[in-house]
Amino acid sequence: MQEEFERLSTGVPGFDRLVEGGIPQGFVVALTGEPGTGKTIFSLHFIAEGLRKGDPCVYVTTEERRESITRQASQFGWDFSSHLGKKLVIIDALMKEKDDQWSLMKVTAEEVVQKVIEAKKVLGYGKGRLVIDSVSTLFLDKPAMARKISYYLKRSLDKWKFTTYMTSQYAVTTSQAFGFGIEHVADGIIRFRRVVKNGRLRKFIIIEKMRQTDHDKHVWEVDVEKGRGFVLLGKVDERAEDFKLMK
Ligand SMILES: Nc1ncnc2c1ncn2[C@@H]1O[C@H](COP(=O)(O)OP(=O)(O)OP(=O)(O)O)[C@@H](O)[C@H]1O
Ligand SMILES: [Mg+2]
Fold first, then answer.
1. Which of 54, 117, 206, 208 could form a cystine bridge with 189, CB 3.0-4.6 A?
2. In the chain, what are the domain boundaries?
3. What is the CATH number of domain 24-192?
């Protein structure tokens, strides 16, 4: 008989059914892709959904300030600010303020782990949601360490009952070094792409890996829409022309 396990809703309309109902509890999922492809906004949906359900949520932001995250969330109708310190902690690696409990003095994997655990203790011991946006920052100056650092993060946070998104940048032009560390360690990989076609920017995702899940295998055209956030526009047709979009 199959063992039962819980899946968490991603909060992105229509996405859950692509992964048999949601992300398996406890998974580490890598959101890998180019700048501006929606990784942060996809992550905000996950947190908004967690807050709606009353889950403890921790968001580590390394490239945008805390205010940038709460403002972006508010554009899609989510009031993150009122949850701060109660069900949500946003750990800010940019602002470097000594008096701020949730500010990182050094941007290292060790500091991230320590703060995330501290946050979890404050928020309560139930099953939580964690976003590390982005892990690439943690190995910017040492890409060869990417895999080791990713593994360290996964291992150190394993017993803290999080389901985790780790975003990572991936640029076709600068080889795959940044994406690679996290991808092998991750239980799931969602790849984000962008293409300019006929003079217009288009965005795509594909689920490349989701352990223990009969996941969708199509390329989906997606977008970020004013007032709504991340939306799935539709499957990309299996025409040669459309396949080229993802290459
Ligand atoms: N209020 C809004 N209305 C419509 N589109 C928006 C809005 N806010 C953001 N966007 C779109 O979302 C994009 C930013 O998405 P997001 O920050 O999630 O990207 P990302 O993949 O995290 O990028 P990076 O790797 O640089 O962090 C913007 O470039 C814009 O196209
Ligand atoms: Mg981002």
1. 208
2. 24-192
3. 3.40.50.300
Sequential pLDDT tens for the chain (247 residues):
788 899 999 999 999 999 999 999 999 999 999 999 999 999 999 999 999 999 999 999 999 999 999 999 999 999 999 999 999 999 999 988 889 999 999 999 999 999 999 999 999 989 999 999 999 999 888 888 888 999 999 999 999 999 999 999 875 555 554 556 788 899 999 999 999 999 999 999 999 999 999 999 999 999 999 999 999 999 997 665 655 555 5
Residue nearest (by alpha carbon) to ligand 1 atom 18:
38
39 lines ligand 1 (CB under 6 A): yes
User: 3-state SS of 166-195?
Assistant: EEEECCHHHCCHHHHHHHHHCCEEEEEEEE
* Secondary structure (H, E, C), 56-90: CEEEEECCCCHHHHHHHHHCCCCCCHHHECCCEEE
